[in-house]
Specification:
Blueprint lengths: L18 E5 L4 H12 L3 E6 L11 H8 L4 E5 L5 H4 L2 H8 L6 E4 L14 H29 L2 E6 L12 H21 L4 E8 L8 H4 L2 H10 L12 H8 L10 E4 L7
Parallel strand pairs: 1-2, 1-4, 2-3, 4-5, 5-6, 6-7
Helix pairs in contact: 1-9, 5-6
C-alpha cells in the first residue's frame, strides 16, 4: 500500500481527474453516491438497464451529474444477466478513455417470503444480482487496477451482513457473503495499493424498504430502535462514499463502514 499523499486535509478528499463506475446509481442510495462523487470532481460511468420498449428512461442522475460540469457515460446491462455482466467493465473502460479509478457496487434486488416458502428462483435471482455480479465486476476491476497499483472498490453491504433479518434469507446470505468478499479482496489487493471497503446502510427511506415503511407495526418497531431517532436518507451516504473513494482512506482497507444511525451499536 502506497503512503498517504502529503496534502492538506481537505485536499485528500478531492476526486478531481478520477473516473468512477457505479452500479445502482439511478435511484436511492446509489444516485446520491454517484452525484456526491461528481461533486467531489469525478467523472461517472453509470450501469443502467435498457429502458423498456416504448418508454423513456429516467435520466435524473445523469442530468444532475452533467449540471455539475462532470462527464457522464452510460453502459446498459441487466445485472441478472451474468454473461452480460462479464462485459461491463471493458465497455466502461472504452467509454471512459481506458481508465477506471473507482468501482461502486451498489445495485441490488430484494425478495421477501418466509424461509419455508422462499422459492429457488428468488434465491438464485438475489444471489446472482447481489453477490455474483459484484464478484464478477470486482474481479474485472482488480485485473485493471492491480497492474496500475491504484484503485478503490466500494461494495454496498447491509445490516444483514451482520444480522439475519426477517423473511429475507437470500438477501442475508448475499450480503453476508459480500462482507467477507470485501475482506478477502482487501487481503489480496491492499499490497497493490487497491483499497477495498464496504458501506453498510441501516434502515434508509428508499423504495427497497417500501413494504416496511408501509407496515405501521414494523415501522414503529424499527424506528424506536434507531438511536438517531430517524430513518436514514440517501444523502447520508455522500460523505462516506467520498471518503472511501478518495486519498483520505489510503490506509483504510477491508473495513465495513456502518451508516445506520447507531443501530448496530445499540
Amino acid at each position: 500500500m502506497d503512503p498517504t499523499p502529503a496534502l492538506k486535509a481537505l485536499d485528500l478528499f478531492s476526486l478531481a481527474g478520477k473516473k468512477a463506475l457505479v452500479t445502482g446509481g439511478t435511484r436511492g442510495i446509489g444516485a446520491a453516491m454517484a452525484i456526491a462523487l461528481a461533486e467531489a470532481g469525478a467523472d461517472i460511468c453509470l450501469v443502467m438497464r435498457e429502458p423498456a420498449p416504448g418508454t423513456q428512461p429516467t435520466m435524473s442522475t445523469p442530468d444532475a451529474i452533467r449540471a455539475l460540469g462532470r462527464r457522464v457515460e452510460i453502459v446498459h446491462c441487466d445485472l441478472a444477466d451474468l454473461t452480460a455482466v462479464k462485459g461491463i467493465f471493458e465497455k466502461a473502460l472504452a467509454a471512459m478513455g481506458g481508465e477506471i479509478d473507482i468501482l461502486i457496487n451498489c445495485a441490488g434486488i430484494q425478495r421477501r417470503a418466509p424461509a419455508v416458502d422462499f422459492s429457488e428462483q428468488d434465491w438464485d435471482d438475489v444471489i446472482n444480482v447481489n453477490l455474483k455480479s459484484v464478484w464478477l465486476l470486482a474481479q474485472q476491476a482488480g485485473r485493471h487496477m492491480v497492474p496500475r497499483r491504484r484503485g478503490k472498490i466500494i461494495n454496498i453491504c447491509s445490516l444483514v451482513t451482520f444480522q439475519g433479518g426477517l423473511t429475507v434469507p437470500a438477501y442475508a446470505a448475499a450480503k453476508g457473503g459480500l462482507g467477507n468478499l470485501t475482506k478477502a479482496l482487501s487481503n489480496e489487493w491492499a499490497a497493490h495499493n487497491i483499497q477495498v471497503n464496504g458501506i453498510c446502510p441501516g434502515y434508509i427511506a428508499t423504495d427497497m424498504n417500501e413494504k416496511l415503511l408501509k407496515d405501521p407495526v414494523r415501522l414503529r418497531q424499527i424506528s424506536e430502535r434507531i438511536p438517531a431517532g430517524r430513518w436514514g436518507d440517501p444523502k447520508d451516504f455522500a460523505g462516506p462514499v467520498v471518503f472511501l473513494a478518495s486519498d483520505a482512506c489510503q490506509y483504510v482497507s477491508g473495513e465495513l463502514l456502518l451508516v445506520d444511525g447507531g443501530w448496530m451499536g445499540r
